[in-house]
Design brief:
Elements: H1 3-18, H2 40-47, H3 51-59, H4 62-72, E1 77-82, H5 84-88, H6 100-108, E2 111-112, E3 143-147, E4 150-154, E5 159-168, E6 172-177, H7 184-187, H8 202-248
Parallel strand pairs: 1-6
Antiparallel strand pairs: 1-2, 3-4, 4-5, 5-6
Family: Belongs to the fasciclin-like AGP family.
Membrane topology: Lipid-anchor; GPI-anchor
Protein name: FAS1 domain
Length: about 250
């Protein structure tokens, strides 16, 4: 083959490979997949040592509640997660003795419906309101205090500390606690306050006083009648005595 023809073919191929065109354009870069929805149970499973707490989160339905809150709203969540050894420290049969409602309250008591960073514990206002409900004394009070780097938690039944930071992303914070947080409402219920004695109304008291006065009236009238009768008898006796004395004179 003629060398000039070879050079011509080589030149054409070189031009085809270096000229911009649709065939030679690189394919666009694939965008990274967005992160998956926040799942509390998966976070705890990855951390390990929270088997019992995970089981209770699922059986009570609280896990589904948290999933919806974290992925359908901007509200943060803080969870105090007891380890398996914490549940082992409970008296035998404690969990089985609870009703379904009480088990829900127990797990909700470990959840604060707002994000609390580790630095916020020093300035937080007590008592904290948990997802279990009323934070008043005798119900579901949860108090957090700090001493140096130690975070203390009291419930009125349980005293414990935060032993580790499991997870934090600015919306969800999970802290490990050394004991199961037992709420007063479930484990130390207070007897209801006695009802106040009914007060006697003024109109009723006035009526009773009037009735009492009316009851005394017959006795007073009888006494007056007896006095008048005695006086009349004495006058009659004096008159008769005077007439008899005059007659014999």
């Amino acid at each position: 083959m003629d060398h000039s023809l070879i050079i011509l073919l080589f030149t054409v191929l070189l031009l085809l490979t270096t000229t911009p065109g649709t065939l030679s354009q690189p394919s666009p870069a694939v965008a990274p997949a967005p992160p998956g929805p926040t799942n509390v149970t998966k976070i705890l499973e990855k951390a390990g040592q929270f088997t019992v707490f995970i089981r209770l989160l699922k059986s009570t339905g609280v896990a589904n509640q948290l999933y919806g809150q974290l992925n359908n709203s901007d509200n943060g969540i803080t969870i105090f997660a007891p380890s398996d050894s914490s549940f082992s420290g409970l008296k035998a049969g404690t969990l089985n003795s609870l009703t379904d409602e009480q088990q829900v309250e127990l797990i909700q008591f470990h959840v604060i419906p707002s994000y609390v960073s580790s630095s916020n514990f020093q300035t937080i206002s007590n008592p904290l309101r948990t997802q279990a409900g009323d934070s008043a004394d005798g119900h579901f009070p949860l108090n957090v205090t700090t001493s140096g780097n130690t975070v203390n938690i009291t419930t009125g039944v349980t005293n414990t500390t935060v032993s580790g930071n499991v997870y934090s992303d600015g919306q969800l914070a999970v802290y490990q606690v050394d004991k199961v947080l037992l709420p007063q409402q479930v484990f130390d219920p207070r007897p209801p306050a006695p009802a106040p004695a009914p007060s006697v109304s003024k109109s009723k008291k006035k009526k009773e006083d009037s009735d009492s006065s009316s009851d005394d009236t017959p006795a007073d009238a009888s006494f007056a009648s007896r006095n008048v009768g005695s006086l009349r008898d004495a006058v009659s006796f004096c008159v008769m005595s005077a007439l008899l004395g005059w007659f014999y004179l």
